Amino acid sequence: MTPRTSGPRPPVRPEFRPPSFTGRLHDARTATAVGRWLGAAFAVCFLTGLVSHYLQHPPDWLAGRLPARPVWGYRLTQGVHVSTGIAAIVLLLVKLWTVYPRLFVWPPVRSVRHALERLSVAVLVASAVFEVLTGLLNIAQWYPWPFAFVPAHFAVAWVAAGAILLHIAVKAPEIAAHWGRRSPGTRSLPAADAVDRRSLLLGTAAAAGAVTLTTVGQSLTPLKTLDLLAPRHPDHGPQGLPVNRTAAAAGVSAAGLGAWRLEVAGPRPYTLTLDELRAMPQTAAALPIACVEGWSVQAHWAGLRVRDLVERAGGRPGTAALRVTSLEVSGSYRVMEMGPQYADDPLTLLALTLNGSALSLDHGFPARIIAPNRPGVLQTKWVHRLEVL
Ligand SMILES: Nc1nc2c(c(=O)[nH]1)N[C@H]1C(S)=C(S)[C@@H](COP(=O)(O)O)O[C@H]1N2
Ligand SMILES: [Mo]
User: Fold this and answer.
1) What single DSSP character describes residue 280?
2) How far is the CA of 366 from the centre of ligand 2 (A)?
3) Concatenated DSSP letters for 165-187?
């Protein structure tokens, strides 16, 4: 037997090699240029989101100070919130594409400081993706998750805001070096990349502009013919107005409404039938419904001034708050409260008509609330009880 001197060599464990990225534009100048737009979009989105949150859930110190004017205030802030959120999706994708090679840095952790930095970026990316994704699915009314949208979206917004501020602080020197095309750090980059970078930035701006133009018409009604990508068209629906929650979904049927009475509780409680309400002096108001999901539209309402109903029940004008209860069997918006500034406002109505005809069942027949400068979720439909507080 001859000893084996040759043959297959024992396998050598190949040394791990991180992928190398030859593509251009994964650089600090591109990251800074896109990051500025993304940061601006997130900042506006965060602030308008706070407005929306505090209008819906005012803390005690704020409750009495929320203004009922301008009547279109919430329409504007929430339209901007949803539009900047949608544009941020495009910007976030481009930003992530620009920086993703850094996911593969080798070694993955160089020091405690480096580990903390990577951890903070992980939190930043996760919270930013969570915010735009849950926001997008919420406007499509699709909830494929076990948690409640509002508190989760609100809490993670703070996480994202904190992570962004931290990220800006950590990256400040790099951002400063690459802020403008002629900044010191940018001069060291190959000149050829500048042309590609301009194309990328123009493409990004065009894409963000395109999604904005094709959705913003849901609240900016002069552009409504362009709103191909918006989940709702501002005038598609009964009586020329979209419906978010139908009577069927709320468990309200016309059959049970024959015996409907408006109950008003307070120092001098009373009840009124629909005919009695119709026989009283009616007030008209042009006010928008502005849904938290971004669509909004102005409509013409008529009915009773809430202020008059409150006064008749013995509520003191200007100081009485109001609790409104819907016929809806269950649902987050069955009971709504309004502070004195809304209850006393001459434009706040218990509306009986919409755009000239009696409310349809889906719009809240027999009676609904319409108040100035409030989120759509608080414009309670199918009202049957008012309680002066
Ligand atoms: N009782 C009750 N009222 C409600 C709701 C609801 O779910 N229940 N949805 C609200 C929401 S989210 C909006 S945007 C407005 C929309 O009113 P519309 O369907 O008449 O357009 O009604 C609000 N009123
Ligand atoms: Mo809504």
Assistant:
1) S
2) 19
3) HHHHHHHHHHHHHTSSTTSHHHH
**CA-CA-CA-CA torsion for 51, 363, 151, 163, nearest 10 degrees?**
-50
In the chain, the N- to C-terminal Cα span, in Å, equals 105
Calpha distance 117→214 (Å, rounded) = 38
Beta strand 335-338 pairing with 322-326: antiparallel
pTM of the model: 0.93
Ligand 1, atom 10, lies closest to the CA of 377
Residues 208 and 212: their CA atoms lie apart, in Å, by 6
Residue 388 identity: V
Q: Where are the beta strands (DSSP E) in the chain?
A: 262-265, 270-272, 283-290, 296-305, 322-326, 335-338, 349-354, 357-358, 368-370, 383-388
pLDDT in tens, 195-244: 999 999 999 999 999 999 999 999 999 999 999 999 889 889 999 999 99
Ligand 1 in reach of 285 Cβ (< 6 A)? no
CA-to-CA separations, 83 to 164, 343, 368, in angstroms, rounded: 20, 31, 28
Which sign does the torsion angle of CA 172, 174, 179, 184 carry?
Answer: positive
Q: Which domains are present in the chain?
A: 28-226 (1.20.950), 239-388 (3.90.420.10)
Q: CA 218 to CA 214: how far, in whole Å?
A: 9
Q: Which ligand is nearest to the CA of 297?
A: 1
CA 372 to ligand 1 center in whole angstroms: 15
Q: Is 378 in the pocket of ligand 1 (CB under 6 A)?
A: no
Indicate whether residue 379 lines ligand 1 (CB < 6 A). Answer: yes
Indicate whether residue 245 lines ligand 1 (CB < 6 A): yes
* Token pair recorded at residue 285: 């108001």
- Which parts of the chain register pLDDT below 70? 1-14, 18, 22
Q: Which two tokens stand for residue 25?
A: 């534009």
Ligand 1 atom closest to the Cα of residue 332 is 7
